[in-house]
Amino acid sequence: MRRGIFLLEEVDFRPMNSRRPLEYLTWLTRYKREDETRETPALTSGMSIRSRDIDLAGAFYAVGITGHPQFKVVTLWECHGGWDGGWRQMMDIYRGVDDRLFLSDIDDLRFSAFSRPLGAVRGTPAPAEVAPAEFYVFESATVRPGAAPGYLEAVRAERAPVLAEHGHRLAGLYEVLYCDTEAVTLWAVSLDDHLAARRARDAALGLDDEVRPDGRLLAWDDRARDFLAGPWRETLLAPFPGSRMAPRAPGAEIRSR
To answer: Which uninterrupted H or E stretch holds 10?
Structure first.
């Protein structure tokens, strides 16, 4: 079995025009749905590479009040076939620096985009196996050089079982590739379960006496510092309607695995 290769992209929009993220997400999800029936990849003017092997696994609107810049989009792309599949197709478009690389249907819509290649590690479910959720907890961690695999294994073995008791389902464990100091995790959760977990952590700190505390949530913070070497942040992402990781209909009951 080949390693899962993904691409994480964070896009922001300036000046702060609230319609731009909506236009971008609508454009993106529409044309990727069309690619699901495409037989062969093709480089096209306006939309770059069109291929069903480069799959939009998740399209999210970043929840700014949890620490994101306002009006930000996060996308997760799955490269079917790994390095020799979707990833090779993306790399091929840079050969010879084809003129069509510089023509886009969304010129001037985005202000900037930051991409990070991700490698899945043991315990990461295939995106198709992730039951759609109301929200996703998105963690980005700076670790000691070379410590990302050990950190992610500790998350899988030690943190994931605790968070599962609080309704957080593991959706991704990723080593950031082409560097050795970053790791990314993704968790599917309902709003109710996420808030309940936050309160259980507050209670463990002695700051909420109305709910049962869970000291294991605090213990993980100490354990994580065995690997961390810099900024660590968790924020929330809201899946865009019509994207694969979004519930099928507004208000639909979140399926359990």
So the answer is: strand 5-12
Residue 40 has pLDDT above 80, yes or no: no
Three-class HEC string of 171-218: EEEEEECCCCCEEEEEEEECHHHHHHHHHHHHHHCCCCCCCCCCHHHH
How far is it, in rounded angstroms, from Cα 199 to Cα 212?
Answer: 9
Per the CB < 8 A criterion, the answer to whether 78 and 4 are in contact is yes
- Strands (E) in 35-163, as ranges, are 42-44, 48-50, 54-62, 72-79, 112-120, 135-143
**Given CA atoms 106, 110, 114, 118 in this order, what sign does their dihedral have?**
negative
Rounded CA Rg of the chain: 19
pLDDT tens-digit map of 171-191: 999 999 999 999 999 999 999
Q: What CA–CA distance (Å, rounded) separates 18 from 16?
A: 6
Decide which of 109 and 188 is more confident: 188
Q: Which of the 8 DSSP states describes residue 70?
A: S
| pTM for this predicted structure | 0.89
